Amino acid sequence: MLRPDVPIWYRFLERYGYLFQRLYYDCLLGGPELTPAQERDPMQRMYRMNVCKRADAIAETDKETWLIEVADGPGLRAVGQLMVYRYLWREDPKIPKPDRRLLVCRMIDRDMFAAAAKDGILIYVIPNDPDEPPRVWATPG
Q: Comparing C-alpha atoms, which of 127, 121, 132 is closest to residue 7?
């Protein structure tokens, strides 16, 4: 999670953290598979850590696993990452629950919203002003 995104994440957790049974951060997805011998080699492990994709967070609810990306004003990168994360997660799921993708942001433009919605991404818009209510869109998919 990038430094500018952390306050958005904390505001999200203040409002919705109760939904989660467990939270995991900076989660590796994909990347090379290492043999047992390679696992013991610090350079091989470092290489794997550097080339894996990383979800900002993965959260467990009682019935689902949420793959989470946090971005102040998400663009192609954030929405595209969530699309890839689902594919990688389904290749090697670590938690045997249905998955859902979640985009947490402060604002989102119309194009990114439309692309995320079309792909079934759940969007939480968390404003800076604590008196302004968040907006949540559950999208089909």
A: 127
User: CB under 8 Å to 134, separation ≥6 — which residues?
Assistant: 12, 15, 124, 125, 126, 127
**What pLDDT does 138 receive?**
64
For 36, the domain range is 3-137
Say which DSSP state 92 is in: S
Summarised one tens digit per residue, pLDDT across range 41-85 is 999 888 888 888 999 999 999 999 999 999 998 889 999 999 999
**More confident position, 139 or 120:** 120
E strands, the chain, are 22-29, 53-60, 65-71, 99-105, 122-125, 135-137
Check which CATH number belongs to the domain holding 31 and give it: 3.40.1350
Question: Across-strand partners of 22?
Answer: 60
Element (H or E) spanning 138, and its range?
A: none
How many domains are there within the chain?
1
